Amino acid sequence: MITGATGTGKTTVSRYLTQTYNIQRVMTHTTRPKRFNEVEGIDYAFETPESFDHNHYIEDVTYAGYRYGSSYESLYAAWDKHNFASIVLDTKGAITYAQKLGVAVKTLFLTIDDPAILKSRLLERGDDPKMVEARLESPEYQRDLVLPAELKASATVIANDNWEQAEAQIDQFMKALAKEVAGF
Ligand SMILES: Nc1ncnc2c1ncn2[C@@H]1O[C@H](COP(=O)(O)OP(=O)(O)OP(=O)(O)O)[C@@H](O)[C@H]1O
Ligand SMILES: Nc1nc2c(ncn2[C@@H]2O[C@H](COP(=O)(O)O)[C@@H](O)[C@H]2O)c(=O)[nH]1
Fold first, then answer.
1. Nearest-5° Cα angle at 43, 143 to 163
2. One Pfam match, by short name (predicted)?
C-alpha cells in the first residue's frame, strides 16, 4: 500500500514496483474526470456517481470533491495473477485498508521536505490548474502530508525529494521484504 499527499510520487513508486519487481497495481475506482493521458481500465475504473455504487468496496472516500474506492473485485483480480500487488490510496483509505487486511499489508508513506514543490509537480504532470488549486486547498491535502498515528508503527517512510534517493529506499524495503517472505 502506497500513501501520502498528492504529488509526492505514489503512482511513480507503483510504476517502479511494476517495472522493477513485477508487482502490479490494483486498479481503483473514481468519479474524478479523466486526465488527458489517463486510460480507462488502466489508470482507474472511471465511474459516474451512479455506477460508482455498483462495486463492493473495501474502503471508499471523498477526496477533493470526488469519490474514490478500492473494490474487492479489483483486489481479487490482482491476487488471481500474483502473490503481491500494490495499491495507491489516500491516508484515510490506507488506515481502513490496514485495519481490514491486517498483516497482509505493508505500507509505504511518501514524504517531501518542501510541500511547495508539490504544486509544480502537479502542474508539470499536466493537471488542470483549477483542479490543482482546489486540491491544494482541500482538507485532504493538508491531512495527507502527515503520517497518521494509526500507521506510524507499521509504515516505512520514503523521502521522495529526489528520485535516486527514493529508489534506494524502495530497493532496501524490497530486500527486507524478500528476506521476511523467505523466512516463512
Ligand atoms: N523524485 C521526483 N522528482 C521530480 N518529479 C517527480 C519525482 N517523483 C515523482 N515526480 C513527478 O511528480 C508528479 C506527481 O507524481 P505522481 O503522479 O507519482 O504522484 P502521486 O502521489 O501519485 O499524486 P496524486 O496523489 O495526485 O495522484 C509526476 O509528474 C511525477 O513524474
Ligand atoms: N482511499 C482511496 N484513495 C484513493 C483510491 N484511489 C486513489 N486514491 C487516492 O486519491 C487521491 C487522488 O488521486 P488522483 O488520481 O485523483 O490524483 C490520491 O491520494 C490517491 O492515492 C481509492 O480507491 N481509495
1. 60
2. Guanylate_kin
